[in-house]
Amino acid sequence: xxxxxxxxxxxxxxxxxxxxxxxxxxxxxxxxxxxxxxxxxxxxxxxxxxxxxxxxxxxxxxxxxxxxxxxxxxxxxxxxxxxxxxxxxxxxxxxxxxxxxxxxxxxxxxxxxxxxxxxxxxxxxxxxxxxxxxxxxxxxxxxxxxxxxxxxxxxxxxxxxxxxxxxxxxxxxxxxxxxxxxxxxxxxxxxxxxxxxxxxxxxxxxxxxxxxxxxxxxxxxxxxxxxxxxxxxxxxxxxxxxxxxxxxxxxxxxxxxxxxxxxxxxxxxxxxxxxxxxxxxxxxxxxxxxxxxxxxxxxxxxxxxxxxxxxxxxxxxxxxxxxxxxxxxxxxxxxxxxxxxxxxxxxxxxxxxxxxxxxxxxxxxxxxxxxxxxxxxxxxxxxxxxxxxxxxxxxxxxxxxxxxxxxxxxxxxxxxxxxxxxxxxxxxxxxxxxxxxxxxxxxxxxxxxxxxxxxxxxxxxxxxxxxxxxxxxxxxxxxxxxxxxxxxxxxxxxxxxxxxxxxxxxxxxxxxxxxxxxxxxxxxxxxxxxxxxxxxxxxxxxxxxxxxxxxxxxxxxxxxxxxxxxxxxxxxxxxxxxxxxxxxxxxxxxxxxxxxxxxxxxxxxxxxxxxxxxxxxxxxxxxxxxxxxxxxxxxxxxxxxxxxxxxxxxxxxxxxxxxxxxxxxxxxxxxxxxxxxxxxxxxxxxxxxxxxxxxxxxxxxxxxxxxxxxxxxxxxxxxxxxxxxxxxxxxxxxxxxxxxxxxxxxxxxxxxxxxxxxxxxxxxxxxxxxxxxxxxxxxxxxxxxxxxxxxxxxxxxxxxxxxxxxxxxxxxxxxxxxxxxxxxxxxxxxxxxxxxxxxxxxxxxxxxxxxxxxxxxxxxxxxxxxxxxxxxxxxxxxxxxxxxxxxxxxxxxxxxxxxxxxxxxxxxxxxxxxxxxxxxxxxxxxxxxxxxxxxxxxxxxxxxxxxxxxxxxxxxxxxxxxxxxxxxxxxxxxxxxxxxxxxxxxxxxxxxxx
Length: 994
Description:
Elements: E1 16-17, E2 25-31, E3 45-47, E4 69-70, E5 73-74, H1 75-83, E6 88-91, E7 115-117, E8 123-125, H2 131-141, E9 144-149, H3 156-167, H4 173-180, E10 191-194, H5 207-220, E11 230-233, H6 241-250, E12 258-265, H7 281-291, H8 293-308, E13 315-323, H9 342-357, E14 362-368, E15 378-381, E16 384-387, H10 389-397, E17 404-406, E18 408-411, E19 414-417, E20 420-423, E21 425-431, E22 437-443, E23 450-457, E24 464-470, E25 490-492, E26 495-498, E27 501-506, E28 510-517, E29 528-529, E30 556-563, E31 566-572, H11 580-585, E32 592-598, E33 605-611, H12 616-625, E34 635-642, E35 645-653, E36 660-667, E37 675-683, E38 695-698, E39 705-711, E40 715-721, E41 736-739, E42 749-757, E43 762-769, E44 777-783, E45 807-809, E46 812-813, E47 820-830, E48 836-844, E49 851-860, E50 866-868, E51 888-894, E52 904-905, E53 908-909, E54 922-923, E55 925-929, E56 934-937, E57 941-946, E58 949-954, E59 957-968, E60 973-981, E61 987-992
Parallel strand pairs: 1-18, 2-23, 3-6, 3-14, 6-9, 9-10, 10-11, 11-12, 12-13, 13-14, 46-54
Antiparallel strand pairs: 2-18, 4-5, 7-8, 15-16, 17-21, 19-20, 21-22, 22-28, 23-27, 24-25, 24-28, 26-27, 29-60, 30-31, 31-32, 32-33, 34-35, 35-36, 36-37, 38-39, 39-40, 40-41, 42-43, 43-44, 44-45, 47-48, 48-49, 49-50, 51-55, 51-61, 52-53, 55-56, 56-57, 57-58, 58-59, 59-60, 60-61
């Protein structure tokens, strides 16, 4: 980061024109009928360097800190970054990268060597935040790591081994070293910077020297397995166009994934960059004028790249950008700590608009920096953390991620000082995958509102719009630890949209985004009467003679599969108030593993039973190991399709013991008949595991098939199957542990269900905690591979001995209903449109022998975790939701992760303790969302709505909630629902009452 040469923008090359100063109207034309290029989400990347309090005291507080943390990283920052969908994080520098030797940052922290950070204040760097800590943080965030390697003081061998250490999955010295430090499986790391600012702190090289070195380094940074590196060359210093020319001319394109560009914005000159606060209007103008040069810089560099790469294969990576001021008085000047004001929010909006405009070439960008350094998104002080105005721009603009850029034409008044003038209005627009158009506008004039007329070509059918705004009374308004909410994202209503014409009154010094949607139907989501498909109390049809009327009744341990246009559900043998012996004595039809089918997941038809008798080999094993007892029914079936046949994995067990048997049966139809094909896994008293509750998943990349199974006896295990036979790949193999709890007798875990999400490229392990008749609840973890390790919401390995999060279901009670217990043992499956559902049993409280099949829709959070609907699925027609529809009275429930203790035996409640107690159920509370964005009732705070997400803030709690239409089962009417996760990993549910 050395002195920057000012590049003067030629305004004639820009898309904006501006007439006389006196005009207070502007015209912005959006081509919604056009658009070819996608705005990469990676434009919204972040950067964290070992500099000042950026890492230590910023991101990293250590695992023993009183500051709430996950593996040493501040929990509040993790949650806030997840909220804005952070796509990538660059590390370890910056200038620090070219003196960082990665092997100093692995292994036990107490044994890592200390070094001097010569670039940033000469402070001691203890290397406690290294490769594992960084990559685990990226996993927690759901963000891609962007690693910048050491070219300045490092070697080709060093960087080559770093790539191998991180990404190689086979047997090699570096892979073994990684495993010795606790990471068996490799990480996937695509983005690699080959050095940093090699024209300066990265070696003071010439362009020609660096290009030759890059070719060597890039050659030995290899692709391992499926990990494909995007190698990024250290690019020019601002307007050094010769450097860019040499990079593109001298480096073969097959070695080059991107070229970086660094461009900082300051007020005056490099030696005196101006103040972050307390500035004059002249300083305000100069900063924004200086920031606008980004457009011309990118245009010139992109033109050079186009000559050598007309197909635009190579990305322009603006991996350091933002405002740089003189350090705050009283702080170490080498730590680059500065405040962040409304002016910085305006600058961020303008520059992101520029990146959108050039998204055909700019595909990665990283603002500098994340915490406590330069134009940071977060500032920290001890246990306190605040969000800066710049953070709220990233929050507002996240709707543009992976959306199609729409061309805009801007004609606007100018804003002038010092005898110079800049356009007062900056704009960009995009169309997301759901067809919504988002228009973002920045008015930099601090004293004048501007009336914007915005024709949206090709979008004249829509008549619905919502808006958000960032503004404040003063140019240097800022958030402080004493007043952390002076500048925030707020609802905005200063616009109209009709007949394809958007009119916006753009306040002075403001950033506004308006969402336009054609899918909205105002009448579709008004709560109105809608009878439930069936009653919850089914005692009148619970007997075996009524089996044809069971539908969703008498369902225990469901498994579901979609075949063509029909869903099939299979379950454990279960009859309310009538055991199998009584059924047989009465001469009623009886079988094992009930089968149901449905076209809509709402109305279910009873088909019959999979077996007329328990498979003989399973019965023999259980009775032999259990003194002739047991084997009275079949448990927890799981059905999977293999080529032209169906495979059912079923269980026979002595209840409350490890004497269990998982068998395989096959059929040509999902309705049978089923023929036993042998034993998959069997266990007996004294074994570590328990052969029950099977779930099968196939790795789509290599066809490997894996069976997950187990219970509170020893935890949950996974074993590889032979795809051809459906049995274990290795005879008598019982597999390895993937999840457990501390005490199986008191802390139940069972019912694994594993699915693969192709969009997220993750495997999700759903498990059930606690006694099945009372506090049964569902948790979930995820992994890159079906065999694990699976980690939970906080990055904990599910094979350790602590409780895992998030909590997806738990006993609950909405008003006007007795409530539900036993909300566990789930099946997770999808439909033909890519939607996901969870089916589980629910027990009507207090009559908790009544078991009802409960199907819930699954939504996915921005950081890739599932949440489920607070209400059962009722095939409610989908419709877009408008913010004004959310105003009103709501019932809300926060599912707890803490289960009250009670006497248990073998992981289940003891006899006469089978009913749910009042303190074991979470009851709803009332809140009111007011039209002005305020919130009262059980939660006091604010709310806003944008792009299908309800944002709620009350006290220290900030929530991002998915919203969709659904059925209010307790009151038999259509309504609006929400679901999300809080910082503790607990589900937050809500439904609108009126």
